[in-house]
Fold this sequence. Notes:
Blueprint: E1 2-3, H1 4-20, H2 33-37, H3 44-48, E2 52-56, E3 68-74, E4 87-95, E5 103-105, E6 110-114, E7 119-127, E8 133-134, E9 137-142, E10 145-150, E11 153-157, E12 162-165, E13 170-176, E14 181-183, E15 186-196, E16 204-206, E17 216-217
Parallel strand pairs: 1-17
Antiparallel strand pairs: 2-3, 3-4, 4-15, 5-16, 6-12, 6-15, 7-8, 7-11, 7-13, 9-10, 9-12, 14-15
Fe (ii) ion (FE2) is lined by residues 103, 105, 110, 171.
Amino acid sequence: xxxxSIINRSIEIAMKIFSASGLHLPEFAFWSPAEWxxxxxxCDEIRDCMxxxxxxxxxxxxxxxxxRTLFTLRNGRHDDPRYPKSYAEKFILDPEGQRAPAHFHRxxxxxxxxxxxxxIVLELTASDPEGNPTGGTLQVAVDGVSRTIDSGSRVALxxxxxxxxxxxxxxxxxxxxxxxxxxxxxxxxxxGEVSSVCDDRTDNVFIHGASRFPGIDEDEPRRYYLxxxxxxxxx
Length: 235
Ligand SMILES: [Fe+2]
């Protein structure tokens, strides 16, 4: 179970770090649960496309090492003609030492962009048609320049650099070193993701299993809704 106190704190750190990095969030990033009670059907796109805050430990019970805090700014849906956007964008907080579990996407193609001042390091592995890691090489493009790398090797992005990951590329990435902002002894990197539509309910394959939306231990009041928690309009 992921503690609500960790979620609240992570969102507030992300607000500070994104702002200090020049990444300004939309208004709904700051709406409290009380503010959401006043919102009606006009906000259905936020609810239905799962825009907003997303904090998870992937069921690890060890958020500082396996976890993620991110904000989805835009997204569409393959299964709903009301939301025809074919693209998505996220801002991701990258505390040093924390990463998401190794995974690939069945259909999503994503660019990971270093939006902060530290390095963003990616570990990239090829997969076979069954989704198992393989050796050999794989093809990636860093800012439009293609390179062939060994499966399982790492690529470090400097501030401003980006990498395009094709579907089925197994990836993990994290912030490391550089001039990332430090809060309470933890250095933070920042990345962005620009991708095709993101469907976190069906498109992710975690190599060692994971729970994308874990249970939450309500050890203190919620300060912000997560993207999977919004109440229905008029609820
Ligand atoms: Fe991913």
